[in-house]
Each structure stands twice: as C-alpha cells, then as structure tokens.
Here is the input.
Amino acid sequence: MDAAVVTDTTLAIAADYDNRPDALIEILHRVQAAVGYVPEEVVQTLADTLNLSRAEVHGVVTFYHDFKREPHGRHVLKMCRAESCQSMGGEALVKVAEARLGVSCGGTTADHSMTLEPAYCFGLCAMSPAAMMDGRPIGRMNEARLDALLREARS
Ligand code: FES
Here is the structure.
C-alpha cells in the first residue's frame, strides 16, 4: 500500500471516531487491520489529526506489543514464552526456531515468508509448550513439530 493510500485510510478511520484523541488505540488497531502494520507516517498523521504530540502517538505504538512497526511475513509463528511453557522447554524451542529461521524473536525472515513472535500465554498451559501458527493453536510443541510447521509454511 503506498503512502498516500495509507494516509487516506488513516484519516478515514480517524474520522469514524470524530478524530477523538481518546480513541487512539482503537484507531491504531483499525489502521493495523487495514494496512497490516503501523507505518511510520501514520504516527505523524494521527498526531496532527487527533491533536496529540508525535511523542504521545509514538509512545502508544511502541508500548503495546500488538502494534507492528513493519509488515509481517506471509506466515506468523507465535511461540509462548510465559511461565508454564518456559518450564516445559519453550525457551529452548524459541532458540531452535530463531536458528532455523535466522531471525530473532520479533523478526521477519529476509524472504518475508515468516514472522516469529513472542507470546505470553494462549491459555494452552496444560499442553505446554504451546505455539500458534497463523492463528491456529498448537500444543505440546517439540522440535519435530516445529520443523514440520516450518516446512509446511515454506511449501
Ligand atoms: S504459559 Fe504458554 S500457553 Fe500458557
């Protein structure tokens, strides 16, 4: 999506909320849903439109992990790093995923095929360690399952 379309989309969404500064988070969620992430130019556009400082908008975008600053890969693998999954070897699996993909958690592969994201409990603690691939929950993860998921996503 080019910058002009992103700006028009952002302005239209903000207008749905009467350009209210207290609606900033809802507006950002809708921009992200429409664009796929929150591009840098959106920060200034919303600051101007909602009569906020650029720092205020930037602070919200960077504080909440849900807001992405760059486009996702075609697939998103979320790996749980919360307590139950940690105690069941989740961190070691995260390291394996990072090594297989060549990115740190939070990053996207150079070919944009995959984004690896941390998560903090899917409510699947009884099936730790847990992950989620493109919104599909996966319990009892292990290295073989991880490799199968990565193969499937790249095929
Ligand atoms: S701690 Fe990982 S799913 Fe709950």
